[in-house]
């Protein structure tokens, strides 16, 4: 009797848990997961570059990765702007217009005060003014978020043209469409790692499969690195800390999740929505300032080129998280740089093979997860891309410009069940539920 009472039955015995690589990967912090994915991305590029037959080294060249880092900064900062706004429950498609204000004020501050640091502050202030306008319209007056954002995107270029006519037209080297030359922040080389005799350059010259390519990519990240770029990427962990580790961040996030619950606990929802949207505008302004001060060294009409919308795309790709957003901005900046540096089109053509392999990987994953529809779509797209690569010698010029948006569509198509936007994002909130 004692044995019967003390011996657990089969139903009481817990089933053994299987320790898999996938489970260990999921348990890692988000930043480490994205780093592993980035390493796999470089491995894929290295494989295609070595065995793809296009005879190109531009895919992992230090110059390509360094330019990618610079092109990613405006997308990253615009995406961070979208992060703060949408975490506060406000959709901000007016990021593009706020970036335009940032380009103008960044150039004006640099030239007027003779300091790029002043230009950075003015760029942030100019974008914040656009954010304040968006907050007044959406939070105080309950204007539809999309309508308000579109209005700002239309208004900002007109304001910039008017201000240029009033200010830059009277300055030497300026006109109604552009500012005098505006310099950026100093550039640095990371000791030991960068330079012709640096550690990464020596590893790159060793021509070791994957290892040398990874060193080449990292070399571009630490060579001639602008302090503006350092500030931009430092804002990624800072934004994560602020939103998930501080009281004000918790209150901003509750505005985008359950504003009624926050109101019942005494949170001033209007106030924190304003804070989120104004920070959003400041981030977008910094993005515009980078374009004017670092990429162009001058304010010029039309120079944002839709990067505000690409920043929103990177935000969705990163699942409304700073680390994923940073990876998305690098990914979306890559094809633009490749198109600029690859005059013969070989690197862009190789990118078609990279896309095909990634889609075949998605096909295998969908089959393993028993997602029949996803598997069929991935198989069709992968086969079509592979045939495209086999049948052509050069990729079309329009491919790099469409890749960021195509990537977002693919992410939404295959990973939508893992994406979670803030629950109250885009909803009109009225105090007291009125």
Automatic annotation (TrEMBL):
It comes from the Bacteria. One of its GO terms (molecular function) is transmembrane transporter activity. It holds the Pfam family BPD_transp_2. InterPro entries: ABC_transp_permease. It is a multi-pass membrane protein. It is found in: Cell membrane. The chain crosses the membrane at residues 25-47, 67-84, 91-111, 117-137, 225-244, 274-296, 308-334, 346-367, 374-391, 403-421. Its main location: membrane. Keywords: Cell membrane, Membrane, Transmembrane, Transmembrane helix. One of its GO terms (cellular component) is plasma membrane. PANTHER family: GUANOSINE ABC TRANSPORTER PERMEASE PROTEIN NUPQ, SUGAR ABC TRANSPORTER INTEGRAL MEMBRANE PROTEIN-RELATED. This is Putative nucleoside ABC transporter permease protein. It comes from Ilumatobacter coccineus (strain NBRC 103263 / KCTC 29153 / YM16-304).
